[in-house]
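#structure-requests
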Amino acid sequence: MFPFFKTWRVLSPWDKTEVVKTFSSMTAVFKLEGKIISKSSQSEIFSQQIEGKTYFVKRYFRSKGLASWLGQSRFRLETKNQQWFNQIGIPAARVVVSGEHAFLLKTLTGVLITEGVSDTRELSELAQNSAEKFNEKHWREAVILQLAAITSKLHQARFCHNDLHWRNILVQQSQASEAPKIFLIDCPSGKKLIWPLLSYRKLKDLANLDKLAPNYLSRTQRLRFFLLYRNSSKLTNADKKIVREVLQHKENRLKRKSKSKK
């Protein structure tokens, strides 16, 4: 009853499967038990197996901040972004179920369930535990090419991820002989922007991607990513300016972190 309202939607084709029984309502999903994979001040994630398939359940038990009162809770942004990725062909886990309980424009609780992507590892985990992968030319080139294309497509649509770190990039590879495939995950902060915020956020996305890159990629390989991102064969003066600004952004962030530790 207004001003409270509820929504619950099981998307096709899962609305005709056993998924409907397990994820029948918000109440049912909040009663499910599973090992918590990740938890924050607003949400928690765990997995569920249904008919041999894995689904990741993200339960939002609160929303915070002024933006949530204006209809821009992290739950709504993440759900909107994930569905938009699916629609425009950005590789991302497919949305299976979404629903919320809200007061006026504010999300009180929410559920976002996505289809598990098999045979994946976070790019950050690969870097830490399987760094030798970056020495495999075909694997490395495939990852660089896809990341450049995905980032370019997002930015051309005036969309910035705002948390484009390697931990939020999944690499799928079923067999060593197969080419890896990239997927984006965890995007509750991404949004479409206009100038002047757009330019700054683009730099932030690029700086986040480049944060770990110097440890695993040569300068030439990092430059190749940037040229692919810019769809250019060589650096222009405008490109050089962007590169300087990205490096300056990284340096400024390191300085801020250093000061905060003192």
